[in-house]
Design a protein that fits this description.
The protein has 309 residues and is of the alpha+beta class. Helices cover 56% and strands 12% of the residues. The chain has eight helices and seven strands; from the N terminus they run ααααβααββαββαββ. It has helices at residues 4-9, 18-56, 74-123, 128-159, 170-180, 182-187, 205-221, 277-287, and strands at 166-169, 191-196, 200-203, 228-233, 239-243, 291-296, 302-307. The protein has a five-stranded mixed beta sheet. Strands 1-3 form a two-stranded antiparallel ribbon.
């Protein structure tokens, strides 16, 4: 009776055919338990596959993806999300690998030039004029190395994001940068005009100064004698830097934001900078939750627009 009573309470009658009903209930429970066990295995199988894939993941197999089932359920959604994450990781890793290779090339070239200049200076006695020329070339090469290394450090800092966010007067920053580049503009025979409306931006002053400096400096250097640079601060866009200059193909504008690309479109052109100016600008804008876009002017030159919250 101690066994029958709880079974009766649970809904199994134990009168005339009680034991038969008990057996039937036990069988139903057994079948249900087996079904649940099988269902659990089916649900866990793709998750185990994802776990194994993540455990194997490394630089050597970033192309591996988990198979996506045909059912529309949470497990399928999880698998798709993991695969999309792997796509982003693979893209980022490949970008870093390409960037490192390009940076190595950019550093190796001026170092080889420096070595050659030093060997030439040591190969025979040189006149004072020849030594002066060699010295100037060495200084120019060394300056470019400094610009490249400084650019790489700034790019690395901005890629990590902002350490702090404080209100910054973008109009004041732009005004000081434009004033600082007046001598450079005069030497290039380029006029610079600025229209500055009050504008606050939450961010880091040092990075914002570098953003504006790169844009203004590029606008002056990639110009023509008698050309002009127009700088404006407003609400939306927050900043516009537009210049006259050589014609730029519309389909080449997007590439200007890639590392080591210059106005000529040649990655190895060592004309006016390290080729990281616009790349740094894009990284700084992203760090400030903003964006940067450029478009070629029909008459030549470039218009760059910066939007920030």
């Amino acid at each position: 009776s101690s066994l029958v009573r709880p079974l009766h309470v649970c809904g199994f009658g134990v009168h005339h055919h009680g034991w038969a009903q008990v057996a039937l209930g036990v069988a139903i429970l057994g079948v249900g338990g087996a079904a649940c066990w099988g269902l659990g295995l089916g649900v866990l199988r793709p998750i185990r596959g994802l776990t194994a894939m993540v455990d194997r993941m490394g630089p050597q197999n970033l192309a591996e993806r988990a198979p996506v089932g045909s059912r529309s359920d949470e497990t399928t959604a999880l698998t798709q999300a993991v695969n999309q994450m792997m796509n982003r990781l693979a893209e980022g890793y490949e970008g870093q690998r390409t960037f490192a290779a390009n940076a190595s090339h950019e550093l190796r070239t001026p170092l080889a030039v420096q070595r050659t200049l030093i060997e030439v200076s040591m190969s025979a006695a040189r006149t004072p004029k020849q030594l002066e020329l060699l010295t100037e070339q060495l200084l120019a090469t060394n300056e470019r190395n400094e610009l490249l290394i400084e650019g790489l450090l700034v790019l690395s800092e901005s890629d990590r994001g902002l350490v702090s966010r404080t209100p910054q007067r973008l109009d004041a920053i732009v005004g000081s940068v434009v004033a600082a580049h007046q001598d450079l503009a005069d030497q290039a025979e380029v006029s610079v005009t600025a229209t500055l409306a009050d504008r606050l931006v939450l961010g880091e002053r040092v990075l914002l100064e570098r953003l504006v400096t790169n844009l203004v400096r590029n606008a002056v250097l990639y110009n023509v004698p008698g050309g002009e640079v127009r700088v404006a601060v407003g609400t939306s866009p927050a900043l516009v830097v537009e210049n006259s200059g050589p014609m730029i193909a519309a389909d080449s504008v997007a590439g200007l934001f890639e590392p080591f690309r210059r106005g000529s479109g040649e990655r190895t052109s060592h004309g006016k900078g390290a080729g990281l100016g616009l790349t740094i600008c894009r990284s700084i804008c992203r760090a400030h939750d903003g964006s940067i876009e450029a478009q070629a002017n029909p008459a030549g030159g470039l218009r760059v627009e910066v939007r920030m919250p």
